TrEMBL record, chain A:
InterPro entries with a match to the protein in the record: G-protein_beta_1-5, WD40/YVTN_repeat-like_dom_sf, WD40_G-protein_beta-like, WD40_PAC1, WD40_repeat_CS, WD40_repeat_dom_sf, WD40_rpt
Species of the source: Nothobranchius furzeri
Lineage of producing organism: Eukaryota, Metazoa, Chordata, Craniata, Vertebrata
Entry keyword set: Coiled coil, Repeat, Transducer, WD repeat
The protein's name: Guanine nucleotide-binding protein subunit beta-5-like
The UniProt record lists the keyword Ribosomal protein: no
Automatic annotation (TrEMBL), chain B:
Gene from which the chain derives: rgs9b
Keyword Ligase: no
GO terms for biological process, alphabetical: G protein-coupled receptor signaling pathway; intracellular signal transduction; negative regulation of signal transduction; regulation of G protein-coupled receptor signaling pathway
Top-level taxonomic group: Eukaryota
Protein name: Regulator of G protein signaling 9b
Keywords linked to the UniProt accession: Signal transduction inhibitor
Length: 424, 467
């Protein structure tokens, strides 16, 4: 096997100096360097620089430089190239799919053929929560079914009684981009975190004059931003996911790390705890396009799903705990059956080309609400795989959708600085 | 070739679309199947290939098989991203479904080219417009120009030189071409340097730390499991079971609070309510998990177990939950307490678990950790689920709950409890007080419970002794 990292790459202009060109960036005014993949790596054809009217003095070069191959070169054994390893991985994957296919491969919508279709839904906004001065990034309902906590890009976390539109508490964090917030099961505290790489717990108080921010307590410490957080079955433990690629379980009182979960190869963007009474698992999704299921006790990754073609923004369990759904930047939402260990449905449509940022199920699990980056919310029939309804109204990306604990309403948080509570 | 370029960039989260948009844009321009266009007189120059907003919306609705509202939304996204630009009102990047005119942006300016949008280029553009006609810049553009002039001062000569060069080169073109290019360039900058106060579709939030070297060539081999047709049926069954309880799919009685602003539904379903609703009691019959996870259901079950003199099972299970999910500091203490109360020989509330489980548990308790009682807890859970739960469902207690009248709330019993808008902190205090009282008092007087059952719904039941 050749030792030359550029073997297999076609370079028609200049020679191996093309690599150094790529590193030198733009010498003034003369060169448009285009990176592309070459035939040896991902089997795409070479790329040319864009044509079109251009008033700069530019020389168009046809380049094909495979920088990725060069960087990964260090990790390969003698006798192997990246190409051969990829080939081997592909073979294994194909074999696995073949074996899986031998079992009766029935899609969910086929099993649900005889099920009655869902009647057309007319979902209207009943409350608009205004008060954040910047993008609302996340929200969570309280178990009392009417209160909720929301966090925004400007570092503010607000606790609302959504029913009366009353703002009950305001917490100011010293960082921007508070991407994670969660309500404690007792309803007496909230957790929040983001670009400060921490997740803090703030106990709430009945005294309006009390500054709750002062009682804020740092619990989780990560080495990159905190993307999601959730309390376990009590106020005493906190589960967090982070941009550093790990998830972790913390003891709230002492801040002690109880368990960490390693396995993702990129930012972890979301997590959800299994609703089972006896189970101790949770699922996480990340930028490595994988959704992983973890055992909280051992820290082991017990199942993994890699069907998505882009970052997974959100994962959520089905109400029974036997399945879960994921939302991704590849504009699809997918549904996985944990016992069958496979994806059983894909929710996609030609007219939906923007990434899905968030998903949640209705109480029965029949409906899947998904918020998208094209400012809409699509409602899917989980069993049939069809879209039941579209909700318009937000004026910017929908960052989070959550159904209230008793299933009576849907709350959507958006980059248009508002939260909306909707129902049929 | 542009499509190939795009394929390479497909996974970038900055570019939200799939091939569909490009495909869509190409198809729209097809003279045979695309949107019909005509030359349009704008000011004194004819702009070729202009299309009306309503034509775009109609074409999209037809091509993508969606309704007009969605087509408008989709069209507006195309405009917001700069694939189509408006000729009039060029700063508002939306589709107006009327005779307002739009044009397709040249692929050179498409966001998928993913060229870094440099401030230098913007400065050149603004300078060029300034050369053409002073005072042409809008207020926000003027501010930007001043700002750039300030911090790019060191290369301002270069910028002015480039601007002049471009201006000169543009003059050499035919007027119609020049006007078109000016429109295109202007549209490009409205997308990438939006006027203040507008929403920019280019805003993607934070950068994600994706590892470009993650060429992972390892694969996970999973345990292949049983036939999934059977498993998918479970999911279907779950939906069918709960559909009557789903407020999005069935009526909420008496009414959905978010619709009528009436909180009766919540008041009737509070965790400490005297008489649970029929729907709620029905849910307890779906699974043991449902019964345990509803605090009111668990209370009912606890009462039932006391009658059967097997209350220690539930108490043990709750103790284990408390151990698992509780604070790390008191964990050892809790484990010891549970051992003394439930597991030790001669313990006051001794639970009946098999020998093997007992052995494993005892061994684990020498070095207790939060999951040390897992085996015992699972055993007891299964015991309750397979044995007590079945009997509970057939018991007079459950029967009474199921057949109690609930639709017309009886005011006397509502008065004694806080309503659903009470703050969770208050509710928690109330709960703690109640628990303290229960712990202090004597166990439930069975005769009181029986007399309560005999007066099924005829009048307000008497308050039990220990509340």
């Amino acid at each position: 096997m050749s030792q030359d990292p550029l073997e297999g790459c076609r370079i028609s202009a200049g020679k191996k100096s093309a690599v150094s060109l790529g590193k030198a960036l733009h010498p003034p005014n003369l060169l448009v360097v285009v990176e592309g993949t070459c035939g040896a790596c991902v089997a795409a054809s070479p790329v040319s620089a864009p044509e079109g009217s251009c008033s700069y003095n530019v020389a168009h070069h046809h380049l094909c430089v495979c920088v990725r191959v060069c960087m990964a070169w260090q990790g390969l054994q003698k006798g192997e190239t990246l190409a051969s390893l990829k080939q081997e991985s592909e073979n294994l994957r194909r074999k696995l799919e073949e074996e899986r296919g031998k079992l009766t491969d029935v899609e969910l919508h086929q099993v649900a053929e005889k099920v009655e279709t869902v009647a057309a839904l007319s979902i209207k906004t009943r409350r608009v929560l205004k008060g954040h001065g910047n993008k609302v990034l996340s929200m969570d309902w309280c178990k009392d079914k009417r209160r909720l906590v929301s966090s925004s890009q400007d570092g503010k976390v607000i606790v609302w009684d959504a029913f009366t539109l009353n703002k009950e508490h305001g917490i100011t964090l010293p960082c921007t981009w508070v991407m994670a917030c969660a309500y404690a099961p007792s309803g007496c505290a909230v957790a929040c975190g983001g670009l400060d790489n921490k997740c803090s717990v703030v106990p709430l108080s009945l005294d309006r004059n009390e500054n709750v921010t002062a009682k804020k307590k740092s619990v989780a410490m990560h080495t990159n931003y905190v993307s999601g957080c959730s309390f376990t079955n009590s106020d005493m433990q906190l589960l967090t996911s982070s941009g550093d690629g790990t998830c972790a379980l913390w003891d709230v009182e002492s801040g002690q790390l109880l368990q960490s979960f390693h396995g993702h190869t990129a930012d972890v963007l979301s997590l959800d705890l299994a609703p089972s009474e006896t189970g101790n698992t949770f699922v996480s999704g990340g930028c490595d396009m994988k959704a992983n299921v973890w055992d909280m006790r051992s820290g082991q990754n017990i199942q993994s799903f890699d069907n998505h073609q882009s970052d997974i923004n959100c994962v959520k369990y089905y109400p029974s705990g036997d399945a879960f759904a994921s939302a991704s930047d590849d504009a699809t939402c997918r549904f996985y059956d944990l016992r069958a260990d496979r994806e059983v449905a894909v929710y996609q449509k030609d007219s939906i080309i923007f990434g899905a940022s968030s998903v949640d199920f209705s109480l029965s699990g029949r409906l899947l609400f998904a918020g998208y980056n094209d400012y809409t919310i699509n409602v899917w029939d989980v069993l049939k795989g069809t879209r039941v309804s579209v909700l318009f109204g937000h004026e910017n990306r929908v960052s989070r959708v959550r159904v209230s604990p008793d299933g009576t309403a849907l709350c959507s948080a958006s980059w248009d600085n508002t939260l909306r509570v909707s129902r049929t | 070739h542009i499509l190939n370029f795009y394929r390479f960039l497909k996974n970038s989260y900055i570019i939200p679309e799939r091939e569909e948009t490009l495909d869509c844009s190409f198809k729209m321009q097809d003279p045979n199947t695309g949107v019909r266009s005509q030359p349009q007189r704008l000011v004194i120059t004819t702009i070729p290939h202009a299309i009306t907003g309503e034509d775009i919306v109609t074409w999209l609705a037809d091509r993508l098989q969606i309704d007009v509202q969605e087509a408008r939304s989709f069209g507006s996204m195309l405009v917001a991203l700069g694939y189509i630009y408006p000729l009039q009102d060029h700063k508002r990047l939306v589709i107006k479904p009327d005779t307002s005119l739009y044009r397709f942006q040249t692929p050179y300016f498409w966001p998928t080219q993913q060229w870094p949008v440099e401030d230098t280029d913007y400065a050149i553009y603004l300078a060029k417009r300034n050369i053409r006609k002073k005072g042409l810049l809008e207020l926000y553009e003027q501010e930007q120009y001043n700002r750039l002039h300030k911090w790019m001062n060191h290369k301002w000569d270069f910028i002015v030189m480039q601007a002049k060069e471009q201006y000169r080169a543009a003059k050499e073109r035919k007027k119609p071409d020049r006007v078109v290019f000016d429109c295109q360039e202007r549209a490009y900058w409205v997308v990438h340097r939006p006027p203040p106060g507008t929403v920019s579709a280019m805003d993607y939030g934070l950068d994600r730390r994706t590892d470009p070297n993650a060429d992972e060539v390892t694969g996970d081999i999973h345990m292949l499991t049983i036939n999934n047709m059977f498993l998918s049926r479970r999911l279907v069954k779950h939906c069918a079971t709960y559909i009557g309880h789903d407020p999005f799919l069935s009526a909420c009685l008496p009414s959905n609070p978010w619709l009528t602003d009436d909180t009766t539904y919540w008041n009737l379903n509070m965790s400490n309510v005297e008489t649970p609703t029929k729907m709620r009691v029905e849910r307890w019959t779906f699974s043991f998990k449902e019964l345990l996870s509803d605090p009111r259901g668990r209370d009912d079950f606890r009462l039932f177990l006391k009658k059967e003199f097997s209350g220690e099972n539930l108490a043990f299970w709750e103790g284990c939950e408390d151990l698992k999910w509780g604070t790390a500091a008191t964990m050892k203490e809790k484990a010891e307490q549970i051992y003394k109360t439930f597991l030790a020989r001669g313990a006051p509330r001794w639970i009946n678990i098999d020998g093997k489980t007992m052995e494993v548990t005892m061994k684990g308790l020498k070095h207790p950790h939060r999951y040390v009682l897992d085996a015992a807890q699972t055993h007891i859970y299964m015991l309750m689920k397979k044995d007590s739960y079945g009997r509970y469902l057939k018991s007079p207690l459950h029967y009474a709950s199921f057949h109690s009248v609930f639709l017309c709330p009886l005011f006397p019993f509502l008065k004694k409890h806080f309503l659903s808008d009470a703050h969770p902190i208050i509710l928690r205090q109330q709960e703690q007080e109640l628990r303290a009282k229960m712990a202090a008092n004597a166990p439930v007087d069975i005769t009181q419970v029986m007399s309560k059952l005999s007066k099924q719904g005829k009048d307000v039941p008497p308050r039990p002794v220990n509340k």
